[in-house]
Amino acid sequence: MKEKVLIIGGSAGMGLATAQQLIKEGFHVIISGGNENRLKTQAKELGNDCEFRVIDAKNTPDLRNLFFSLSGLKHIVVTISVRANASGIAQTEELDAKQAFERFWTSYNVLHFAPEFLNRNGSVTLISGSSAKTPLKGYGVWGTLHGSINSLVKQAAIDIAPIRVNAISPGGIGLRPDRQLVEHKGQAEDIAKMIVAVITNRATTASIIDVDGGERQGTWSG
Ligand SMILES: NC(=O)c1ccc[n+]([C@@H]2O[C@H](COP(=O)([O-])OP(=O)(O)OC[C@H]3O[C@@H](n4cnc5c(N)ncnc54)[C@H](OP(=O)(O)O)[C@@H]3O)[C@@H](O)[C@H]2O)c1
Questions:
Q1: What's the total number of domains in the chain?
Q2: Alpha carbon of 79 to ligand 1 centroid (Å)
Q3: How far apart are CA 201 and CA 71, in angstroms?
Q4: Residues with Cβ < 8 Å from 81, sequence gap 6 or more?
Q5: Which residues are near ligand 1 (CB < 6 Å)?
């Protein structure tokens, strides 16, 4: 029987790339997102080992209902994005900062519900970001959000053990190769490969794994 993986945010970007990789590796995936047409199209392309669910993951009752509707889940990956008018702390109003933090609360709720719905040998993988480790003017809200997600991972890995909890910390995927130490321009597929590695490595938990071309070292800013 194939292991089931729910990807919250699986219809685009890193989530979609992860679905593609996981199916290649023999998993069954459920991709979720808000846009039904996009989900339908992607699920059709991904084939028989993919189903889809329409959901606004920011809505807690919807999220809980999604878990209720799925049986035998082994792993969850959270790759949702939020659109928020957030930049530096001095420039960002509370409401905009709170909007950015919707990603934190969705991640929190997934971890909160995980012991009830997830196989005890399963895992939850979140997305953080290199701005947590390299504070940067104009990115204060995002850096704080990513730092909060890193702390959430470390704490939840203890609180919901033996379920494993990890995060991948990307740099600016395809955006800022000038900040990175490698010539390779990072892609969603690079993140996806690491998510698959984390899901399949049963000794990995409480880990924040950098896939950022060395961006967090901040050598470009000096
Ligand atoms: N790209 C980078 O360089 C970078 C660096 C560090 C961190 N990150 C973070 O990594 C995450 C993934 O990035 P990405 O580039 O792969 O994002 P993306 O291409 O925008 O894909 C986001 C996915 O999440 C879904 N989604 C958004 N809001 C949702 C909601 N409320 N409920 C359910 N699904 C939702 C989207 O589908 P619908 O639109 O249909 O809902 C889509 O499937 C983001 O949080 C981003 O901030 C990105």
A1: 1
A2: 5
A3: 23
A4: 9, 13, 103
A5: 8-15, 32-35, 38, 55-58, 79-81, 103, 127, 129, 170, 172-173, 175, 188
Residue 131 identity (one-letter amino acid) = S
Taking the complete model, does pTM exceed 0.85, yes or no?
yes
Helical spans, DSSP H, in the chain? 13-24, 36-46, 60-69, 94-100, 102-117, 140-159, 188-200
Pocket-testing residue among 79, 101, 131, 142, ligand 1, by greatest number of atoms within 8 A of Cβ = 79
Find how far residue 131's CA is from the centre of its chain: 15
Distances (CA, A) of 78 to 33, 122, 129, 182, 218: 11, 14, 13, 27, 26
Query: Which structural domain range is residue 82 located in?
Result: 4-221
Average pLDDT per 10 consecutive residues for the chain, totaling 222 residues: 97 98 98 98 98 97 96 97 96 97 98 97 97 91 98 98 98 78 90 98 98 84 56
Helices (H), 180-219: 188-200
Domain of 176, CATH number, reads 3.40.50.720
- CA 82 – ligand 1 centroid, Å: 7
**Hey, whose CA ends up nearest to atom 20 of ligand 1?**
81
